[in-house]
C-alpha cells in the first residue's frame, strides 16, 4: 500500500465536488421540512432530475439548459407529492416512499435511449490569478459554477430563514400549522411552494451527478444520495450550516475511501464503500445529541377545519 | 360609553348536520366589556371566528364603526382594529417572543425596534415580558401575555378574548382583569367569552347568552345572580350534586414521599409527594396545567413506576407494580386526554370497555374475549351514564367530547374501584353531563371508595372535595379541609402569581 499516492490537495478539491449533489438536495429538503412537510421522495426527485438534465443537455448541447430542465423535472415530480399530501391529504411517509419508487422507474424508462452517451462538458470557472494560487487555488477556485451555486444557495437559505419575514412565516407554518392558520397564513400554499423548491433542489443535485460527477447516464445512478440528504437534514438538527458540515464529511470520506481503494489498502472494498454512510451518520448522531429541534408540525397532515 | 362599535345582525352559519349560529344579533358599545356566554357547542367559537374573519357567515351582516364589515381573512380584521386572544394559544414554541409577536402583525417593524416596543407596551399594561425568550420556556400566564401584547401593539378597537382565564391561577386572573379594566378605560371594547359566571359578573358590562346556536337572552351581569345566568345558559334548572356528610374510614391510598422523574422532555417531575386518602373521602387536587398533574396520574396508574413503598394501597406496597396489577388490586384511573389515552379513538365502545374492564368484569377467559358480556358491559355504561350514541359498536372518535367523557368515567366507576383517580373529569363537558359525572364520583365515595379528583376547575373541586390540595411545579401543598377555604388561600396554594407583577393602573 502506498499512501503517498494520495494527494491532499486533490483530495480536498474533489471533496467539494463529491459533496455538492448531497448538499443541494439537502438544502431543498431542509426548507421543505422547516415548513413542516416530510418528503421522503428525495431519491426519486434526484434521479428524475438526473435524467431530465442529462437528456436536455445532450439534446441541446448546453449544460445550463440541462440544469434548468433538471430543476423543472424535480419540481414537477414534487408537484405530484404536493397534490397528494396537501390537497388529497394523503399520508406523507407513504407518498414520499411511493415518489421515490415512481421516480426510479420513470427515470429508467426515459433513460433507455441515453445509455452510453456523453453529456457536453460543464466548464470550470477559471479565475485568472486566483485559480493559479498554489494549494488554495486548486481547492477553492478551480471548480465548476454549480459547486459555488450550492454554497450560495446554502447562504441564501440560511439568511432567508433567519432574517426575512417570509422565512419567519415558513418556520411558523412548520412549527405549528394550526396557530399559523389562525393568524391568517396560507398553510397549504406556503407548503406547496416549499415542496416545489425542495423538488427543484433535488433535481439539480441529481443532474450534478449525471452531468458533472460521473458524467454519463446509468439506471439508479444516484445510489442512495437522496437518502443521505434526508439523513443529513435530520442529524443536522434542521440547521443549514450543519448540513454543509455533514455534506463535506460525506464527500470527504467518499473521496478518501476511493483513494484508499486505489492505494490498495487491505480492507475489502465493500467495507470502504459503506464507510461514507456510516461515518456521516455516526458523527451527526453524536453531534445532534439529545436536542432534536425538529419542527413541531413535521409530517402532520394539515386540514383547515373551520 | 358613547356609541356602538360593532353591531351584529342576524348572523347565521350552518355546517353539514348542524346549525352553529342561527340568526344571532347583538351590539357592542365603545369601551364596553361584553360577555358572550354559553355551554360547549353553543356556537360561541363559530361566532367569534366570523368576527375575526376565519369563517364566512352564510347570512347576516356586521357593521363596525358605522361601515359594513365583511372580513374575508384575519389580516383584514386586524386592519380594521379587531384583535383576538385565542383559547388554545396560537403561539410557536420554538420561536422567541418578538418573532411570535411579529407573526401577528401586518407590517412588523425591525426586530430590534419591535423588541423595544414590546418592552414598553408590556410594562405599561403591567405584563412585563422579555422579547428574546423562547415561548416554549414560558408559563401559561406568560404565554397569554404574549398573545395580549401582540394584540395591544396594533391598537385594537375590539379585543376578543376566548376563555382567557382557564389556564390562570386566581392571582393571575386579578392581574389580567386589571389590564382589561385599564384597556376599557382607554376606550377599547372587549368581547369576553367564558362560562365562568362569577368572572363575568366581576368584569363585564353586558352579556349575550347563546344556547344551541341561538341568542336566548341578554342581561346586565351585575344585576343578576350567577344561578340565573346559569339557568339561561343551560335552559333548565341545574342539578347540584348532593352528598351526605360522612365519617372518613380507614386509609385506602397513601403516597409516601413519591418522587419520580417525568418521562417527557418538557414534563414536570414529582417531588416528594405525601398524602393519604381515606374510605369515603374525596380529595381534590388543583393546579395550573403542567404542574405535575399528568405525571401524578401516571404514577398512580402504574404507567410510571416508583419505589414499592411510595404508593401504598390498603396497606400493600404497589409502587413498583404495573397498571394491570394495580387494576386487579382495585386502583383505577381516568386520565385527562379522552382520545388517545383514556380511549382508543378508532375502536368501538365495546372494545374500549374491554380495554380496561376485561379482567375486573370477567370479560375474558383463558385469553379469549367474551364479546357478548363485553357488549352488555358497554351497554350498561351507556345506559347508566346517559351516553348519547347510536350503539355499542360506534367508534369512540365519533362521540362528542362530553359523551365520551361520560363513557370513560362510567367505565371505571362501574368496575367498583377501591380507589379511583381521575384527571380533569369534566373538561370540555356541558353542565348537565358534568353534574352527572360529579354525582357518580360522590356516590362512589359514599359507597366506601376513596376518590382523588385532579382538576383545573376550582369550582368543581370546591363542589366535590372533602379535602383540598394543590400541585405547583411537581410539589404538593399542604392538604386542608375544603370547607371554608377562600379563593385567595387557594391561589396561594397553587403558587400565587408565579412571580408576575400586578398592573399599575
Automatic annotation (TrEMBL), chain A:
Mind listing the UniProt keywords for this protein, alphabetically? Cell membrane, Membrane, Transmembrane, Transmembrane helix
Gene Ontology cellular-component terms listed = plasma membrane
Q: GO terms for molecular function, please?
A: transmembrane transporter activity
Provide the membrane topology annotation.
Answer: Multi-pass membrane protein
| Ranges in a coiled coil | none
For this UniProt entry, which segments traverse the membrane?
Answer: 6-28, 40-58, 64-84, 96-115, 135-161, 192-211, 217-236, 243-265
Alphabetical list of Pfam families matching this protein: BPD_transp_2 (PF02653)
- Compartmental location: Cell membrane
Protein name, please? Answer: ABC transporter permease
Amino acid at each position: 500500500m502506498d499512501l503517498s499516492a494520495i494527494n491532499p490537495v486533490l483530495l480536498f478539491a474533489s471533496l467539494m465536488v463529491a459533496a455538492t449533489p448531497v448538499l443541494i438536495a439537502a438544502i431543498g429538503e431542509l426548507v421543505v421540512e422547516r415548513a413542516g412537510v416530510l418528503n421522503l421522495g428525495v431519491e426519486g426527485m434526484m434521479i428524475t432530475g438526473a435524467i431530465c438534465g442529462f437528456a436536455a443537455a445532450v439534446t441541446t448541447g448546453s449544460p445550463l439548459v440541462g440544469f434548468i430542465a433538471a430543476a423543472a423535472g424535480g419540481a414537477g415530480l414534487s408537484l405530484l407529492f404536493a397534490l397528494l399530501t396537501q390537497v388529497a391529504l394523503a399520508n406523507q411517509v407513504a407518498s414520499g416512499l411511493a415518489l421515490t419508487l415512481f421516480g426510479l422507474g420513470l427515470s429508467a424508462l426515459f433513460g433507455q435511449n441515453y445509455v452510453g452517451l456523453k453529456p457536453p462538458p460543464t466548464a470550470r470557472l477559471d479565475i485568472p490569478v486566483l485559480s493559479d494560487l498554489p494549494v488554495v487555488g486548486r481547492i477553492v477556485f478551480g471548480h465548476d459554477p454549480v459547486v459555488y451555486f450550492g454554497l450560495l444557495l446554502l447562504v441564501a437559505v440560511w439568511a432567508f430563514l433567519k432574517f426575512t419575514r417570509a422565512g419567519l412565516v415558513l418556520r411558523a407554518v412548520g412549527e405549528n400549522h394550526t396557530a399559523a392558520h389562525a393568524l391568517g397564513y396560507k398553510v397549504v400554499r406556503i407548503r406547496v411552494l416549499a415542496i416545489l423548491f425542495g423538488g427543484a433542489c433535488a433535481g439539480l443535485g441529481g443532474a450534478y451527478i449525471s452531468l458533472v460527477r460521473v458524467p454519463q447516464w446509468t439506471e439508479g445512478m444516484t445510489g442512495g444520495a437522496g437518502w443521505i440528504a434526508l439523513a443529513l437534514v435530520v442529524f443536522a438538527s434542521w440547521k443549514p450550516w450543519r448540513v454543509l458540515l455533514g455534506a463535506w464529511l460525506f464527500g470527504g470520506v467518499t473521496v478518501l475511501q476511493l483513494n484508499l481503494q486505489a492505494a490498495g489498502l487491505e480492507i475489502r472494498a465493500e467495507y470502504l464503500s459503506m464507510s461514507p454512510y456510516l461515518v456521516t451518520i455516526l458523527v451527526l448522531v453524536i453531534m445532534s445529541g439529545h436536542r432534536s429541534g425538529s419542527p413541531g408540525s413535521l409530517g402532520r397532515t394539515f386540514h383547515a377545519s373551520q | 360609553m358613547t356609541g356602538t362599535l360593532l353591531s351584529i345582525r342576524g348572523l347565521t352559519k350552518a355546517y353539514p348536520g348542524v346549525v352553529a349560529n342561527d340568526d344571532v344579533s347583538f351590539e357592542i358599545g365603545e369601551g364596553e366589556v361584553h360577555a358572550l356566554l354559553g355551554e360547549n357547542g353553543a356556537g360561541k367559537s363559530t361566532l367569534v371566528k366570523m368576527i375575526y374573519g376565519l369563517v364566512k357567515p352564510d347570512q347576516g351582516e356586521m357593521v363596525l364603526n358605522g361601515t359594513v364589515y365583511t372580513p374575508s381573512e384575519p389580516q383584514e380584521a386586524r386592519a380594521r382594529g379587531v384583535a383576538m386572544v385565542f383559547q388554545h394559544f396560537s403561539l410557536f414554541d420554538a420561536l422567541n417572543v418578538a418573532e411570535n409577536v411579529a407573526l401577528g402583525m401586518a407590517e412588523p417593524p425591525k426586530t430590534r425596534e419591535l423588541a423595544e416596543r414590546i418592552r414598553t407596551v408590556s410594562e405599561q399594561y403591567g405584563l412585563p415580558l422579555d422579547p428574546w425568550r423562547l415561548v416554549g420556556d414560558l408559563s401559561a400566564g406568560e404565554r397569554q401575555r404574549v398573545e395580549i401584547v401582540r394584540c395591544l401593539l396594533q391598537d385594537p378597537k375590539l379585543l376578543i378574548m376566548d376563555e382567557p382565564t382557564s389556564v390562570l391561577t386566581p392571582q393571575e386572573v386579578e392581574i389580567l382583569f386589571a389590564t382589561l379594566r385599564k384597556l376599557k378605560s382607554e376606550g377599547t371594547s372587549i368581547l369576553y367569552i367564558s362560562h365562568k359566571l362569577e368572572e363575568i359578573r366581576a368584569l363585564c358590562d353586558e352579556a349575550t347568552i347563546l344556547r344551541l346556536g341561538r341568542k336566548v337572552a341578554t342581561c346586565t351581569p351585575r344585576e343578576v345572580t350567577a344561578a340565573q345566568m346559569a339557568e339561561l345558559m343551560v335552559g333548565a334548572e341545574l342539578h347540584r350534586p348532593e352528598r351526605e356528610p360522612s365519617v372518613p374510614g380507614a386509609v385506602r391510598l397513601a403516597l409516601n414521599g413519591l418522587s419520580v422523574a417525568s418521562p417527557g422532555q418538557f414534563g414536570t417531575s414529582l417531588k416528594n409527594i405525601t398524602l393519604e386518602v381515606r374510605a369515603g373521602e374525596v380529595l381534590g387536587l388543583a393546579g395550573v396545567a403542567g404542574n405535575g398533574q399528568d405525571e401524578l396520574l401516571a404514577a398512580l396508574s402504574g404507567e410510571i413506576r416508583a419505589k414499592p413503598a411510595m404508593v401504598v394501597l390498603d396497606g400493600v406496597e404497589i409502587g413498583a407494580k404495573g397498571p394491570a396489577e394495580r387494576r386487579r388490586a382495585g386502583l383505577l384511573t381516568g386520565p385527562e386526554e379522552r382520545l388517545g389515552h383514556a380511549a382508543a379513538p378508532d375502536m368501538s365502545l365495546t372494545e374500549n370497555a374491554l380495554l380496561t374492564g376485561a379482567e375486573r368484569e370477567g370479560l375474558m377467559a383463558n385469553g379469549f374475549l367474551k364479546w357478548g358480556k363485553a357488549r352488555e358491559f358497554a351497554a350498561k355504561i351507556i345506559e347508566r351514564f346517559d351516553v348519547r350514541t347510536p350503539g355499542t359498536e360506534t367508534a369512540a372518535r365519533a362521540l362528542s367530547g362530553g359523551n365520551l367523557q361520560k363513557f370513560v368515567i362510567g367505565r371505571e366507576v362501574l368496575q367498583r374501584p377501591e380507589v379511583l383517580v381521575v384527571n380533569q373529569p369534566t373538561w370540555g363537558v356541558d353542565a348537565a353531563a358534568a353534574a352527572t359525572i360529579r354525582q357518580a364520583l360522590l356516590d362512589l365515595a359514599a359507597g366506601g371508595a376513596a376518590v382523588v379528583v385532579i382538576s383545573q376547575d376550582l369550582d368543581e373541586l370546591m363542589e366535590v372535595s372533602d379535602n383540598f390540595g394543590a400541585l405547583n411545579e411537581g410539589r404538593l401543598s399542604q392538604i386542608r379541609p375544603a370547607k371554608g377555604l377562600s379563593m385567595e388561600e387557594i391561589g396561594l396554594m397553587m403558587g400565587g402569581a408565579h412571580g408576575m407583577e400586578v398592573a399599575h393602573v
